[in-house]
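Chapter review. Work through the record for Tectonin beta-propeller repeat-containing protein 1 before attempting the end-of-chapter questions.
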Amino acid sequence: MANSLLWAVDIFGRVYTLSTAGQYWELCKDRQLEFKRVSAVKQCCWGIACDHQVYAYVFSSDVPIRYQEETYENQRWNPVGGFCEKLMPSDRWQWSDVSGLKHQQLDSFTLPSPHWEWESDWYVDENIGGEPTEKGGWTYAIDFPATYAKDKKWNSCVRRRRWIRYRRYKSRDIWAKITSHDDPKQLPDPFSDISVGGWEITDEPVGRLSVWAVSLQGRVWYREDICHQNPEGSLWSLIATPGEAVQISCGPYDLLWATLWEGQAIVREGIDRNNPQGLSWTIVEPPSSENGILHVSVGVNVVWAVTKDRKVWFRRGVNSHNPRGTSWIEMVGEMMMVNVGLNDQVWGICCDNRAVYFRQGVTPSELSGKMWKAIVAGRESDSSQTSSSTSLLSAGCFFSDDIREQTNSIIHGDADVSSDTESPQLDPHLAEMPRLGAVASTSGNDTGSQPAEVSTKLAADPLDSAPREASCASDDGEKAGLEKPTSTADQGSQPAELQWTNIDLKEALKKPLLSASTFTETSSLSSLGMFSVGDEEHYGADEHPLWAWVSGGGCLVNSHSTLKWFTLQSGLLPSVQSLSLSISPAQTAAWRKQIFQQLSERTKRELENFRHYEQAIEQSVWVKTGTLQWWRSGKPHKWTDVRVALEQFTGNDGIRDSILFIYYMDHEEKKYIHVFLNEVTILVEVLNDAKHSFALYTPERTKQRWPIRLAAATEQEMHDWLALLSMSCCESRQIQGPPSHQAIWSVTCKGDVFVSEPSPELEAAPHLMPCDQMFWRQIGGHLRLIECNCRGIVWGIGYDHTAWVYTGGYGGGFIQGLASSADNIYMQSDVKCVYIYENQRWNPVTGYSSRGLPTDRYMWSDVSGLQECTKVNTKPPSPQWSWVSDWYIDFNVSGGTDREGWQYAADFPASYHGHKTMKDFVRRRRWARKCKIITNGPWLEVPPITLWDITIIPSSATSEEPIALWAVSDKGDVLCRLGVTLQDPAGTSWLHVGTDQPFVSVSIGACHQVWAVARDGSTFYRGSVSPKKPAGDCWYHIPSPPKQKLKQVSVGRTSVLAVDKNGNLWYRQGITPSYPQGSNWDHVSNNIRKVSVGPLDQVWVIADKVQGSRSLSCGTVCHRTGVQPLEPKGLSWDYGIGGGWEHITVRGNATESPKAALHETSEEYSAKAPAVETEEHGGKGDHSKGMLLVNEGQELDGNAVSC
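Structure tokens for Tectonin beta-propeller repeat-containing protein 1:
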């Protein structure tokens, strides 16, 4: 998980950030401004400075923020002079927007604020619908407005062309003042509060945010049009309120609360993707009439509040359907303010010591949490102020008792500024305070009760002559436990009296005394003590941070997060600890490699003394038995209880081999089947929400598309069998350790990662090794896509678009013990969406309803409509996944939707569109729900940019040369990774490559040939890419195949192949060193999902509708045979493992074919290849030569293992 930041403002107006992986508050880079409040999200932070102006802090990134300005030049044909600028009076403007209604000249475009700069001058867009236009970019039509085409015809009377110019946002990693271009009479007053949220309301536009603010006069304002391409927004809109507002809080989705001067809260209702400002306000009364609400903070399903007496309250029953909630629950502690962040986690600032507290135990099932825990992280400046003690430590000197006493006296002397800061004695009753319970009651309609929690007051009031005693909660509240900071540096210090302080903004110039040292987990005060001298240097009179505001809207904390905020490090000081961080990962890897080589040489030397001894070989037999279920091969196809036995034996040659027996009953007769594990080609989990099942393939069963399927009673039992069988298969084939650099990697539809070691016979004719005999072993982790090269650099992308780099380990997941490496295994998580469809048919009486015709699909179904999928019975993909969200309407559907998410069509199934017409009698909408898997494997996250596609150059000229790696972000930006080497496979930074439109696929081949596919299906070639110029200079538009839109491209040594959106595979003809763009596209095959071209121009694909002996399979690994320089498209297909495969890459396989095979002519090979195809497919050799053809009328067998 990538690091995220907690933001805070101290009493002097300085802004600090605390990383979830760090231990020190870091001062914000822009130190010239003093702030009152901040509100943060993942990508930015908004704040109000002491001048009451709004500022935005946008985080820097390797991907720039670019905005495309466009205008159209329009012309009409004149019989005298041809096309000219003179238009008819009824025509549009000569320079206009796309609709022609708005006048837009080139010189009318200006930068919206000083934080932008022009990236380039105006230029003509020479692209229309994915196809390149003629020089000049003109498109032609009969009249305005009409459908435009790139070719001029005899009746083309008008033409237009699009001009483009980009501007770039430059004010990143600094506080940028939000300027206002509104009407001077409508300018907002100086601001007093601000809140940022709303990023979960809609995904369109990308990065959309809701920014709400409150002015000094109590008016509420909303900032319009904030998104990724416009981080400042455009203007402020005034939102009417029922009273004068004081403070406001906006959640990630549709919750918005504000507080009024009268102490009431107001809730905004009607917020959705079509109306992010909401519709109306509803008033919520405070918990008690005596003390109104002073501060409020909201999340997804929670509302926390602080009343004027500084008590903390939790609102029960809050959700999207009831944003008001039902009742208030009082929590323990007195806070100045609270803030709700991501995952509904809560932070607060204590009234007594101005420390930041974190609410522990907040989970989806217990939103109120369990206890407060203080964050004791030091500030970044602390390490520099301890330089004197560090120098003494490095010189071997330590403080003596006399020095300790002098230091203590100096600290107390500096702290006693005035008599009113005298420290009261600790109440002896507090140390023996019993565990208190609170009777739960409500101030709303809900009369339910909550379990009592341990409660304790935070501290004694320093302004009272005697400290207060802790008391029970009021009848209107319920209290939760509290915990104070724990110091590991001074656990054994003797008890002493505490010195309390309460400094507000007016007393900021006074030097505070030391705060309380520790509270134990049980809120006992008996273990309190003073800080030791080492701790006083961190939190002395000038060091204890006093906070005024905290914001966790961009801080991602969950139950798996390991935070270093709550304990002080003992032993080394921060400046000394920083020395251990100076060793880079590359140096560590080189050091480990050197140690390994030395140990290997030592082992060889020692074994030389024992070469004359006879080797001892143990011959043994080991058997494991168990009970599983087996999917019967013969009819009736059903799950049958079977007894399985794995017999493992060691031969005279010391090689282990195993046999798996499956015993079953057939018509009261005992039978069995057996499988030699040295013949097993793969063991893979099957995507099934009802069974813990896995499949076992052999070459023969791969041809049949009918593996042996076994199911266990529990997930753990299935993983135990998979781990044991996988290890036995590897032992019988003598495969161990990490994959080689030449390995072929693949990913299943389920996200499992597999690797196969290629043999030289895999690409060598005439003795070609069938790819159904390849052995695949699983590598831990969960990915959607994977790419590699022949030097061992491997990157992957998860379903949540997170990038991962291979660490060199093996194993992980359920593969543990000897079958997994001891190091280089890390935690990995992935998130994806599960989709179901709500279907309706139009009724003349009631309109659209869920009552369809008897022949219709299920009213709640999958995308095909053949399987019923309701919100209740739809489960995560497998037991390893867990839900992390509720069901929500998905508006990002191909074809578009209306305001409620519906798509319309004439009938099921058909082509859907987002608007209703007279002929539309059915409609559907897609519902989505996110689920998450947590596993481990040899992968490290590469933050912070999320990716869609990735490619690595198959090989490079020298080992010292950086490895070229290109990628496409999930937003469509093209990126080039810098600094990728064998020692640092993750690289250092991204270099943005400018494009005119979003891209979806990119591939780099030999000699730095870079090809890419845009989202509209158009193809591009990047010119002048080289090691010295890694980003190249410009894009060349390549015409796509006729009437086809490409979706993926792969580049090898001299070959370029692409897949279109209809599943056709195309080969680019005419590529030469002098003309690398090629001349035309040549069709190769159909039913292709993905293609991978290797460094030797090998062609491997993931194909659909592959014929087996019993069924058709989707997602099958196929190898193109007969690929030679004289026959670059190959001759026929060899079918491998499948179905259920999603991705394959052979870009690391640079194993050359034997020289003898190279002398064989393509004619000799072509005479043999069809014979193989004819034998396998019953005389269909002529069709299989170029196509993956099947009987389109044949249904996919539901018993087959497929996607």
